[in-house]
Structures are given as structure tokens and as C-alpha cells.
Amino acid sequence: MGDSALNRAPVEIWERILLEVISRITTPIFETSCTPSNYLAFKRTCGDGDTIVYQHEYKESERSRRALRRVCRAWRAIADRWDNRERWIRVSALDKQISEERWRGAQRVEFVSPSGMGIWNGNGTKAHETGGLRAVLFDWRLLGLPGGSGMRLRRLEMLHITESGFGSVIQGLCGAASSLTCLRSLSLSVPTKSSSSLHAISEHFHRLTHLTLRMTFTQKLTDFPDFDSDDELDSQSEDDGGRAASHILRFPKLEVLFLFPVRHCFDLTNWVLPVLRHVHVRPVGGIWGRTILPFLERHASTIETLDMDDVSTSAIPLYTSGLAETSNVDTDTLDFWDTFAHLKLLRCKIGRNGFSTYPDQHHAFECLVSANPVVTADDFTAVLGPWVHDDRVKKLKSIVLFGPYMSRGAFTQKGPVRAILQQLRWNGTRLLNPAGREWIDMP
Question: Are 82 and 104 spatial neighbours (Cβ–Cβ below 8 Å)?
């Protein structure tokens, strides 16, 4: 297209079209709102310290930007603007200066631990790294001063802050809140003995829609600076009411919560999350029944996605209704599907005995995701059989499986497995892998 084509519409229209083309693929990454139907894709963009953050969508958008800039001089000028060039910055060390222009244009910033170095996770940490991070946050604070252009940052990943420097880093983050008005997604490692910091975060970043909290355990509370000594954070009264108020976490717009507890957990009773819809949690030991489950039950009326990331075979079962093969609670008094009446997507480990109860045709449930691999044909039939053979059970839109049995492709050949596949086609249920690709072709 020649430059003359630009005369057919105002430059503002062309600019809006080009920016839409450049950013449309990365919307699930930078805008944290998600639905049960795209939750798994959103989860693949979330680093939690153990998993790899997928950059496929971002790389695709960069290819689009570079292709568009070749069309004509005017398009190149738009695509090369400072706020379009570099939207995702990954920082593994703070010994190199990053310009103010790069910070202003970034929509996502990750402070990551380089392989083998451990500079953020407390192993061999050097004091200057924490000091460097505080300096970065102070620079961000200056970007929010009157007359400045502020920042476009929507997503901030700080999962590897050292425990010794945690307090001062959070103080710096809260101090920079005035320049981070676009921030909607925040990921933090938070020591369990420093839960008052969550109150400060909720006070300064009340517009968050996605929050990841990776808890770390520390023996001594004195390992952390006193938050109350900073005059920029809310002061805490010495009476019981003041201490209770400092532990209230209130996010009126938070939709997505990723929670990674340790053997000790925050007090979740004072968390106010009125629109919480998507929860990703790792159950750990005795805190499941004592802390996590009551929290989920309080938010059951709004939860649409429940992702139980069981990382070991000893993980505690999801619920007393039999989402695992054993339970220590009387299952006759509680029913999972009645409690979570608006649940649409569930991810959990599914034992050979399946569920003790199943949702009926009137339930909102749509998608089941198995967290353990399918190794044999018996695994396949145990997971899928109840959903296709009982007419009283809700017919799902999709079921997500993975594992060596699926990858070999032998599951399409014969016997009861073939009968299940035929019934899935008849019901219109899509059989997917975790990346969203179909294992079988639908008619």
C-alpha cells in the first residue's frame, strides 16, 4: 500500500487499526480478565517459579508488528513508536541500566531468576540485587510525578524477591503506585509472617484483576523490616482492632487468584474478594481442610474455575465429595456440585474410582481437566466412562487429557475406548490436550 492510501482516512483511524492488529494476540497476556473457556491458555502465560512462561503469543504479535512496519513509511512510524516497540521486559540481573523510555513502554515486566544463579530466591543472594530492585521501584515512582507520562505496565511478576529484602521492596512498590495506574496483574512471593503487606498492597493496587501469591516460610518475624515504620503505608494501631485491620485484603475487582501455600498459610478469613471467579491453588498438608477449603466455600457462589494443581501423589484430595479415592470426612453431609453451583471448569486429579457424585444436566459445569496423565486404556475409560454412559450426568463441552496413552494414538482403534469416542462425538464433547488441540476430529 502506498502513502496515498493514508489519505482515505484520518491517521488516527489507521493508528487504531494498526495497534489492534499488533496487540490483539497478546490481549489474554496483558489484560488479565479471562473466562473458563480460555483459562488454560491464560494459565500458560503465568510463571509461578516452577513452570515456564509461554511467549508464543507475544512472539506472534511481534511478527505482526514487524510485517506491518514494512508496508509504508507512516505505518513504520506507528509500529516503531516507543510505546509499541518493547512491551515485555524480562530482567534476570540488575547490573545493566534500563532506560526510562523502555520502562514507560513496557506492558509486562518480569524479574526472573537466571538458571543456576539463584539471585532472587535467597541462595547466594547479594545485597546489591535487592538494592537494585529498590532503586528500580524508586525510578518508577518518579515516572508518576506531575508532568510525567507515567507507565503502561499492566502485568508485574516479582516471584523471586529475597526474604531478607521483602519488606523494603514492597514499600518501594507501594510507593510507586501512583505511576502504576494501569497495573492489573501482580505476582509476588510473600513470606507467611508478613501478611500485613497484603493489606498495603490491596490499599495501593485496588484495581488488580489477577493476583498470584507464592508463599514462603520464615521462622522469625524479625527477618522483615517493620512495615508500620514507613509513613507511606497505613499506620497500624497497637490494639486488637488495628492488628485485625492490617490483615484485611480487599480487592473489589479481583477475578483471578493463584495461591501457592506452604505448610503455613495466611489467615484468609479477612479476605474480601466479591467478584472472584477463577482460583488456582496447590493443596498442602493440613491447611487444606483448615484454611483453603473454608475460603473456597465462602466464595463458592462466584467461582467458575477451580484448578487444583496437585504436584505430588500425596496431595490432599480436592473435596469431601470424592474427587479422589479416599476421604477422611463424611461425604453424605456435603455435595461438591451443590456447593459450587456455578462452577464451569474443574481441574484436579481423578482416581480410578472417579467422582462419588456427578453434576446433573441442569448444572453449569462445562469442562473437566484431568491433572494426572492417562497411561493405559483403563485410565481412559475410568475418567471418561461416567460422563458418556449415564444419561443423568451433565454432557460436557470439553474434556482435557494428556499422557503417553493419548500421545501414542492407539486410543482410536477398538474396544470400549472406541465406543466412548463415538459417544463423545454424538454428545458434541471435544477431547482436547492442555494446549487446546483436539485429540479426535469432530464430525
Answer: yes
Return the exposure string of 330-360: e unless at least 16 CB atoms fall within 10 Å of the residue's CB, then b: eeeeebbbebbeebbbbbbbbbeebbbbbbe
**Other Cβ atoms within 10 Å of 63 Cβ, number:** 10
Going by C-alpha positions, the residue among 264, 99, 108 that lies closest to residue 184 is 108
- Contact yes or no for 432/399 (Cβ under 8 A): yes
The Cα 174–Cα 228 span in angstroms is 13
The C-alpha atoms of residue 87 and residue 23 are separated, in whole angstroms, by 10
Query: CA triplet 8, 77, 184: central angle to 5 degrees?
Result: 100
- CA pair distance 118, 316, nearest whole angstrom: 30
CB 278 within 8 A of CB 256: yes
Question: How crowded is the C-beta side of 21, counted as CA atoms within 13 Å?
Answer: 16
The edge-to-edge listing of strands for the beta sheet with 278-281 is 88-91, 108-111, 155-158, 185-191, 210-216, 256-260, 278-281, 305-308, 345-348, 367-370, 398-400, 430-432
What's the one-letter identity of residue 82?
A: W
Cell of 278: 477463577
144-188 pLDDT tens trace: 766 666 788 989 988 877 777 788 889 999 999 999 998 999 998
Tell me 159's DSSP state.
Answer: T
State the pTM of this model: 0.81
Q: 339-395: per-residue pLDDT in tens?
A: 999 999 999 888 777 787 889 999 999 999 988 888 888 889 988 998 998 889 999
User: What is the C-alpha to C-alpha distance for residues 47 and 131, in angstroms, rounded to an integer?
Assistant: 24
For residue 118, give the amino acid letter: G
